[in-house]
Design a protein that fits this description.
The protein is an alpha+beta fold. Helix content is 28%, strand content 26%. The protein contains 16 helices and 29 strands. A 5-stranded antiparallel beta sheet has the order 1-2-3-5-4, with helices on one face. A hairpin with a 4-residue loop joins β7 and β8. It starts with a strand and ends with a strand.
């Protein structure tokens, strides 16, 4: 692929593409390449969306997302170059262990949700979240793959194509009905994934994809703890809320789901009584309401009929509003009744049986554990909120409500709320060794809130532009906002050398001279001839020029009349064109160089070079064949910008 990527082996195949392990020859790193299957190359609308979505997904930088490096096309084959992750899928990890201990499952789920929160903030929806699309690294870090592909898999038509029974197990009701899908669809799939992690089973199964799809629409999922006893009741509530049939009953954002998962994780030991801010206690197991099929979810042929049915009044919608009004009135009257009963109860209760009233002490700047022991003796159970703070020490009370010296009824309606410091927000520096330093910079700044200082060094072992080390080292905990130094490689230090004269030499003599001068052999012309007999008649760069070590030198042998076949471009001489990098703008570390030759007599255009090249390798020397008659026009593009146009004659 552009002579840059070398396919090593096939590592996976799906409904849309095959995945290969490959080597990036230029950056000297292992990568993964996903190549779309041939049937998709004929769908122009699909390819247009593919390019748009893949480019958007490439902008996502997150430690739990497989990074996309490049998108390209060669010989009508479309491909995506991405980070190679050495590990197994979450599906395989679950099957290996049978099921995951719920604390481990929560840790994995939070990382997955964090990645999706980043994607949703960029208006990118995955639409195919499932354990098979999550890779577990050797360090047990989950990474979501297939961003930029999954959205394309479900076209924006009235019906959805379910490619595999594996995907439908995790699809939301609106997805399997072919309706509009958004962030809530990803949240439903997360719920199913967590369900499978903690139970080792799927909530719905069947012999066909249609049977499974119908269960997503019609049946209630089992309570996870009924399958795996011992799970926290609060975790049951989280999973079932995420899997609510109606999108409005689910978490509205992934961040709400993260908040509840964090709440369980931080309250170890009180799992059955954790109060989740995003789940009402009364509704913990009643969020599995069936979502009515909306007109936008139906196939086009059925929409008109459905509307006519509504107009004719055959549905039950005319009874809905009165029922809602009655329910609302009953709820209001019930709330008023509870308040009045409480108030009257205090008035008629003998003084010695009424709630004890105390004067609150000052709990601010005291250790929360000491405060809790004191309050326990008084029969007070406070509500505790934890917040990060760069000044107040960990576990110290920062604020209280009501304020000190305030009268307070023990067991009354008013709650004592204490805000406790979690200390400064700490982040653990990730292992980013051998990763692209530009990607790492954005990762550390955007996701970890760190200040990045970059230092470039020559290095014999680490590929160009890859991270050599960080200071502090990976695994070190530092305060958010701290500075971290990223050392990245400029590759081996290349000394300037003088190009030897190869004209008149044989092939073997030229190779030895180049090796002795720390240079290497480049292209050999004419191409396609068996063996390199005869003497060299030209070279590029020319003898006496100064170039960096390891520069490739192009050589030209004598042409044979039988090999020209009447092609004028093969019958003349050659011109060495030296290409400098214009200083008019910052080109970055790597650019795309393309060189074209147009024959003036025929108008035919020939591509001489198309490759990604480091800016440190400029000036670049390109050999241009000149026909015996007529001339050629050479055009040079860098990153699609025309930087040179020149005509040459033999």
């Amino acid at each position: 692929m552009g002579n840059r990527y070398e396919i090593l082996s096939e590592i996976g195949s799906g409904g849309m593409a095959k995945v290969y392990k490959a080597k990036d020859r230029y950056l000297q790193r292992t990568i993964a390449i996903k190549i779309l299957k041939d049937e998709f190359s004929e769908d122009l609308e699909f390819l247009k969306r593919f390019d748009t979505e893949a480019q958007a997904a490439a902008s996502l930088t997150h430690p739990n997302i497989v990074q996309i490096y490049d998108v390209g096309r060669e010989n009508n084959r479309y491909y995506i170059v991405m980070e190679y992750v050495d590990g197994i899928t979450l599906k395989e990890y679950i099957q290996l262990k049978g099921y995951l201990e719920w604390r481990e499952a929560i840790n994995i789920a939070i990382q997955i949700c964090s990645a999706l929160a980043k994607a949703h903030s960029r208006h990118i929806i995955h639409r195919d979240i499932k354990p098979n699309n999550i890779i577990m690294t050797s360090d047990k870090v989950p990474k979501i793959t297939d961003f930029g592909i999954a959205r394309l898999a479900s076209s924006e038509t009235a019906t959805m194509k379910i490619d595999t029974i594996g995907s439908v197990h995790y699809s939301s009701p609106e997805q399997v009905r072919g309706g509009y899908t958004d962030e809530q669809s990803d949240i439903y799939s997360i719920g199913v994934t967590i369900f499978e992690m903690v139970t080792g089973k799927l909530p719905f199964d069947g012999e066909t994809s249609v049977a499974v799809a119908l269960k997503h629409i019609q049946e209630e999922p089992p309570i996870p703890s009924s399958i795996k006893p011992g799970l926290p009741r609060a975790l049951d509530g989280i999973i079932l809320k995420a899997m609510a049939k109606n999108k409005q009953d689910r978490y509205q954002t992934v961040n709400e789901l993260i908040s509840d998962l964090e709440n369980i994780r931080s309250r170890t030991g009180a799992s059955s009584e954790v109060i989740l801010p995003n789940i009402k206690r009364d509704d913990m197991f009643t969020t599995r309401k069936f979502e009515p099929i909306g007109d936008e979810d139906l196939p086009k042929g059925q929409r008109r009929k459905n509307k006519e049915t509504s107009k004719n009044g055959n549905g039950n919608n005319k009874y809905l509003m009165p029922i809602l009004y009655v329910t609302l009135i009953v709820a209001i009257l019930g709330s008023i009744g509870i308040f009045v009963k409480t108030l009257l109860g205090e008035l008629v209760t003998p003084p010695e049986e009424r709630p004890k009233e105390i004067i609150l002490g000052n709990y601010v700047n005291r250790d929360i554990n000491d405060v809790l022991r004191e309050l326990e003796e008084q029969g007070i159970s406070p509500e505790i909120k934890y917040e990060n703070d760069d000044i107040v020490a960990e576990n110290m009370v920062m604020n209280q409500e009501p304020l000190p010296d305030t009268p307070f009824k023990v067991g009354g309606i008013t709650k004592l709320v204490l805000t406790v410091s979690k200390g400064p927000k700490m982040v653990e520096i990730p292992n980013v060794l051998n990763q692209d330093h530009n990607t790492v910079k954005f990762l550390l700044e955007d996701e970890y809130g760190l200040k990045v200082k970059e230092v470039s060094e020559y290095n014999e072992e680490v590929g160009i532009n890859l991270v050599i080390k960080t200071d502090p080292q990976p695994g070190t905990e530092v305060k958010a906002g701290s500075e971290v130094t990223v050392y990245w490689s400029m590759g081996p230090e290349k000394k300037p050398v003088v190009v030897p004269n190869l004209v008149g030499d044989t092939y073997e003599q030229a190779v030895k001279k180049l090796r002795d001068s720390s240079l290497k052999l480049g292209d050999v012309f004419p191409e396609g001839r068996e063996g390199y007999t005869g003497r060299i008649v030209d070279q590029a760069p020319k003898a006496g020029e100064t170039v960096p070590e390891d520069t490739a030198i192009t050589i030209y042998f004598e042409e044979e009349a039988t090999e020209t076949h009447g092609d004028p471009s093969q019958a003349g001489g050659h011109k060495t064109v030296t290409i400098n990098l214009p200083n008019k703008k910052n080109w970055g570390d790597v650019v795309r160089l393309r060189v074209f030759e147009m024959l003036m007599d025929t108008g035919d255009e020939i591509e001489l070079r198309d490759e990604m090249i480091s800016t440190s390798e400029f000036p670049v020397h390109v050999a241009v064949p000149i026909p015996a008659s007529g001339g050629v026009m050479v055009r040079v593009y860098i990153n699609d910008t025309l930087v040179r146009e020149e005509t040459f004659n033999n």
